[in-house]
Automatic annotation (TrEMBL):
GO terms, molecular function: G protein-coupled receptor activity; olfactory receptor activity
Keyword Plastid: no
Keywords: G-protein coupled receptor, Membrane, Receptor, Transducer, Transmembrane, Transmembrane helix
Segments crossing the lipid bilayer: 23-50
Family annotation (SUPFAM superfamilies): Family A G protein-coupled receptor-like (SSF81321)
Name by which UniProt lists this protein: Olfactory receptor 4F21
UniProt-listed PROSITE patterns: G_PROTEIN_RECEP_F1_2
UniProt subcellular location: Membrane
Length: 127
């Protein structure tokens, strides 16, 4: 007698923040603008550090890498969430969910490593 779980999950149903279409459109516009500002701000920081020769020091190198990683961290799950606000049926497949979880943990861990390197750089500079 095998009592194991025999169910198979192929997709998850995502429940929204609200059930009003007007509020969902408003949330879409607000979150989309915040996402665009985040990505464009991080790109601006990276381009500024790359193009200005006075900013070619280890601290600014780490800051440019932090902006790059932060741009990817906000790009892992936010587009799926934003586009889900405009859809009637909000689902995500099991593989897509696992892929998002993998990339959030990988990119988040990378961001933590960069922050630790920045802290160590400041510690060395002070001491």
């Amino acid at each position: 007698m095998d009592g194991g779980n025999q169910s198979l999950v192929s997709e998850f149903l995502l429940l929204g923040l609200c059930h009003s279409w007007d509020i969902q459109v408003l949330l879409f516009m607000i979150l989309f603008m915040i996402y665009l500002m985040t990505v464009s701000g991080n790109i601006f920081i990276m381009l500024l550090i790359i193009n200005d020769s006075h900013l070619h020091s280890p601290m600014y190198f780490l800051l440019a890498n932090l902006s790059f990683v932060d741009m990817w961290l906000s790009s892992v799950t936010t587009p799926k969430m934003i586009t889900g606000l405009l859809r009637e049926n909000q689902t995500i497949c099991f593989g897509g969910c696992m892929c998002q979880i993998l990339f959030v943990h990988f990119v988040g861990g990378t961001e933590m490593v960069i922050l630790v390197a920045m802290a160590y750089d400041h510690y060395v500079a002070i001491c």
